[in-house]
UniProtKB/TrEMBL annotation:
Comp. bias (Basic and acidic residues): 506-516
Function: Catalyzes the methylthiolation of N6-(dimethylallyl)adenosine (i(6)A), leading to the formation of 2-methylthio-N6-(dimethylallyl)adenosine (ms(2)i(6)A) at position 37 in tRNAs that read codons beginning with uridine.
tRNA processing recorded as keyword: yes
Gene: miaB
SUPFAM superfamilies in the record: Radical SAM enzymes
Name listed for the protein in its UniProt record: tRNA-2-methylthio-N(6)-dimethylallyladenosine synthase
Protein source organism: Cellulomonas fulva
Molecular functions (GO terms): tRNA-2-methylthio-N(6)-dimethylallyladenosine(37) synthase activity
Record note on quaternary structure: Monomer.
SMART domains for this protein: Elp3
Similarity annotation: Belongs to the methylthiotransferase family. MiaB subfamily.
Sequence positions that bind [4Fe-4S] cluster 2: 198, 202, 205
Domain Radical SAM core, residue spans: 184-415
Length: 543
């Protein structure tokens, strides 16, 4: 069921058949303006995980199908667009603060912008808070949920026509997101959703409530999307799901994920396959074998630990224990010695004792994660853990968090220093390093997903410089906690550029979007086309 809220009356109603929204394919091209008008511009801003980033690509795709155009880089940075969409997260402690901070800033922009602006809020927090968003921020025009991304263009048009806020939240998935139009953030790498929702019942997590039960796509549909991505220039694909290694349960094949990895890895022209995130309880040896035996599957693995205490894992309803977790890592490294393993860890879960926390430190020391996302537990309304006794004082959680971060920082530094001297192949990214202009470096990801900043040789002609999407072989010269430096080119060492179809595709899209191409140049890449703007957590990092 969906609801609509009217600004003027503050009431909610369920649309009848006569008032229900038409889907975007029903004349949607006319929604962005009347004939002869300049197309309306949009910006999509993303808070949260990779699933949200991919959903934002669908939002952008639907807006473009409806006749909107992406705001240019400067306009996007200034939030100067006819439509600003915020795709929200409800998992992190400060999710609501981030949303309302953004909305407060946009209220002023909306008042000052000639011709006005529409503000839309979607994603997990929209699914959770619903009409409460408009009650708290009455300048918001549209609120839509995780189960009905497809209605965004029509809701915007109805809000304009009715001059009132439109809130539509569905209780179950209406259209599988992967069937929707997509405006890919990158032409050389793409996300492919293999499932939506989650069947787990972790007590700290609200995702199953907001995303629903797991629904798997058929393998043929996934392979068709991967092949279509490769045909447009992509050489890297990341398979997405709330729990990717449970893929196939819906159609009765518990070995489906390993088979899918092999099949995707065999797609001609695809060079890198990644996936996120698996669940330790369902992670099986056939997946390890598929990773080890499929050259295109990269030696990187995100394996969420959450806690090293068996007692806390039980309270979290995480159906594995620390010994099993470490056993998985041992088997992965036995088959894939160079694998880089990352994780998620929560500190301060209700009832966590000093001994429990020491168990977490012990497991982290043994696991040797290349990176970790570390979080302080916070009560999330709607989760079972929010009502548990023995909620810990903030000062205790903070002290433990700082100790954990210090330990993981040391391990990150040690593991990255051990990479010095290795030869790595880096997929050059667009705008991958904040200091690239100043340091005259480019940035990208090695096969194990470590961030690498690489120097260009002196005197390299701009036309010969690597483009985003090209692959560069270099030698690591320095390891820092969160990145590697590969300055081998400056001393006449390894520096081999392999120009790829992905680089060609990036160059073609850059030219068609009106940006001059300078071979990515010594000062970094030119600004790419405007599209979804990610404000969420990076691919790797320690928090």
């Amino acid at each position: 069921m969906s609801t609509t809220l009217d600004h003027a009356t503050g009431t909610t109603s369920t649309p009848t058949a006569s008032s229900a929204l038409a889907r975007p394919d029903a004349g949607a091209g006319a929604l962005a303006g009347d004939a002869g008008d300049a197309p309306r511009t949009y910006v999509v801003k993303t808070l949260g995980c990779q699933m949200n980033v991919h959903d934002s690509e669908h939002m952008a795709g639907m807006l473009e199908q409806a006749g909107y155009v992406a705001a240019g880089p400067e306009q996007a940075a200034a939030e100067d667009a006819d439509v600003v969409v915020i795709n929200t997260c409800a998992v992190r402690e400060n999710a609501a603060d981030k949303l309302y901070g953004n909305l407060g800033r946009l209220a002023g922009t909306k008042r000052q912008r000639p011709g006005g602006m529409q503000i839309a809020v979607g994603g997990c927090l929209a699914q959770k808070d619903r009409a409460g968003i408009v009650e708290r921020a009455p300048w918001v025009d549209v609120v839509f949920g995780t189960h009905n991304l497809d209605v965004l263009p029509a809701l915007l048009e109805r809000a304009r026509h009715n001059a009132s806020a439109q809130v539509e939240i569905e209780e179950s998935l209406q259209v599988f997101p992967s069937t929707l139009p997509t405006r890919r953030e990158s032409v050389y790498a793409g996300w492919v959703s293999i499932s939506v929702g989650c069947n787990n019942t972790c007590t700290f997590c609200i995702v199953p409530h907001l995303r629903g039960k797991e629904r798997d796509r058929r393998p043929g549909e996934i392979l068709a999307e991967v092949e279509a991505l490769v045909a447009t220039g992509a050489i890297e694909v990341t398979l997405l799901g709330q729990n990717v290694n449970s893929y196939g349960v819906g159609f009765g094949d518990r070995g489906a994920f390993a088979k899918l990895l092999r099949a995707v890895g065999a797609v001609e022209g695809l060079e890198r396959v990644r996936f996120t995130s698996p669940h330790p309880a369902a992670f099986t040896d056939d997946v390890i074998a598929a990773m080890a035996e499929t050259p295109a599957v990269m030696p990187s693995l995100h394996m969420p630990l959450q806690s090293g205490s068996d007692r806390v894992l039980r309270a979290m309803r995480r159906s594995y224990r620390s010994e099993r977790f470490l056993g998985i890592l041992d088997r992965v490294r036995a088959h894939i010695p160079d694998a880089a393993i990352t994780t998620d860890i929560i500190v301060g879960f209700p009832g966590e004792t000093d001994d429990d926390f020491e168990d977490t430190l012990r497991v982290v020391e043994a696991a040797r994660f290349s990176s970790a996302f570390t979080f302080q537990y916070s009560q999330r309304p709607g989760t079972p853990a929010a009502d548990l006794p023995d909620q810990l004082p903030k000062a205790v959680v903070q002290e433990r968090y700082e100790r954990l971060v210090a330990l993981q920082e040391r391990i990150c530094a040690e593991e990255n220093r051990a990479q010095v001297g290795r030869t790595v192949e880096v997929l050059v990214s667009e705008g991958g390093g904040r200091k690239d202009d100043a340091t005259r470096r480019l940035s990208g990801r090695a096969a194990d997903n470590r961030l690498v900043h690489l120097a260009l040789p002196d005197g390299l002609a701009p036309a010969a410089a690597p483009r985003p999407g090209d692959l560069v072989t270099v030698q690591v010269t320095h390891g820092a906690p969160h990145h590697l430096v590969a300055d081998s080119a400056l001393a006449g060492g390894a520096f081999v550029v392999r120009r790829t179809r992905a680089g060609d595709a990036w160059e073609s899209r850059t030219a068609s979007d009106g940006h001059a191409h300078s071979g990515a140049g010594a000062c970094g890449s030119p600004a790419g086309p405007a599209g979804p703007v990610s404000l969420g957590m990076p691919t790797l990092g320690t928090r």
